[in-house]
Amino acid sequence: MALLKIARIGHPVLLAPALAVDDPCAPEIAVLVTDMVETLADADGAGLAAPQVHVGKRVIVFHVPPARHRASRYRDAGLDEETDAVPLTVLINPEIEPIGEETEEAFESCLSIPGMTGRVSRHVRIRYRGLDLAGEVIERQAEGFHARLVQHECDHLDGILYPQRMDGLATFGYVEEMTLPRAADAADDAADDAADRAGEENGEQNGGET
Ligand code: NI
Fold this sequence. Notes:
Elements lengths: L26 H16 L4 E3 L9 E6 L6 H6 L9 E13 L4 E6 L7 E8 L1 E7 L5 E7 L1 H13 L15 E2 L13 H14 L9
Antiparallel strand pairs: 1-2, 2-3, 3-6, 4-5, 5-8, 6-7
This protein binds nickel (II) ion (NI).
């Protein structure tokens, strides 16, 4: 196992489309994934894509810590709110399909753009599909933070960083310089923002950078 160096915005590997993995069961993919998982944990992040560690292959790893999902979303999805975490997942050659037209904005951050955050619109609900290390198909429906996270990570495989998804740069900035909305009396949207921001600013609590 090894901690890998994370590429930061500006490095060309982050802008290049990654190549499909021919054999998900190949030993070098297992080594890559092991190192990515260790690197992600060390960085307190929620997700990591292979190009972020200078490897141009279509591999992502991610997990959704329990606090990231609102129970209502899980009830809507018919899932058990007691199991509102997504365990560490390895997806090789992932594909995404939006479910419905609904989008929502929330703040994102990225391990390749340390210390910064910006508001990005994403599909609320998606279906995603990919292979695990055994070559078995993983297919899930996701919504909310889970869906956002997978969209963010898959963008990395196409050479897209979240600022490229922003409508403008007015909400892009250093986390430390930006005012965190308070959830207590806020409208639903603002409460979402607060939760998202809290997660992005403190990976140990809620989620972390991706
Ligand atoms: Ni990222």
